[in-house]
Design a protein that fits this description.
Strand order of the largest sheet: 3-2-1-4-5
Oligomer: single chain
Largest sheet: 5 strands, parallel
Order of helices and strands: HEHEHEEHEHH
Helix content: 40-55%
Structural class: alpha/beta
Number of strands: 5
Length: 176
């Protein structure tokens, strides 16, 4: 968790700056897919955004709600393969550190494209499938981080940037 918190201290402000640059005059409706403990969702809502966080872990959702100081994030259980939202429901969809944990990331990206408005933004972060990621992101974490769950990251689930680009384009999204 400490690694995720440290990563979020860098990534979250960048995401917020990008959102404000692109949508400076409106409070956007944001979906955080695989929201986990709410690191991003809770930060977004503190900046005035309307945020829904979805995850398959009820335990993570409970933790996210506990740390939501505003009480305004709409946390709910849901499956990223079948998002329980209407087409074009969100201005922004985020999927941070979750695509590498699903067996069918292409289907998840298709679902994200379905609920994203045509002029919307999709932010994602995942682990590249290469030797360095295997060494640091899988083996390094297993060797040096106490109590790492078995198979926290599985090499075959890691995703190359070209693959994510392909999933986005196949789903009708433009990659920038």
């Amino acid at each position: 968790m400490a690694l995720l918190r440290a990563e979020c201290r860098i990534r979250n402000p960048w995401i917020i700056r990008r959102i404000l640059e692109i949508f400076p005059t409106r409070a956007d409706k944001i979906l955080d897919v695989g929201c986990g403990a709410g690191f991003l969702a809770n930060e977004l809502v503190r900046h005035g955004f309307m945020v829904t966080g979805i995850d398959t872990s009820r335990q993570s959702l409970a933790i996210a709600q506990e740390y939501d100081q505003t009480g305004r994030v709409q946390y709910q259980w849901g499956d990223a393969n079948q998002l329980p939202f209407a087409n074009q429901s969100f201005d922004i969809v985020c999927a941070m550190d979750m695509l590498e944990h699903v067996k069918t990331p292409d289907l998840v990206v298709t679902e994200i494209a379905r609920v994203l408005k045509p002029d919307g933004l999709f932010f994602y972060h995942t682990i590249n499938r290469n030797f360095l990621s295997w060494l640091v992101g899988i083996k390094g974490v297993e060797w040096f981080v106490k109590n790492t769950p078995p198979d926290l990251h599985v090499y075959r689930y890691l995703i190359k940037p070209t693959e994510v680009r392909q999933y986005c384009e196949q789903s009708g999204m433009q990659v920038k």
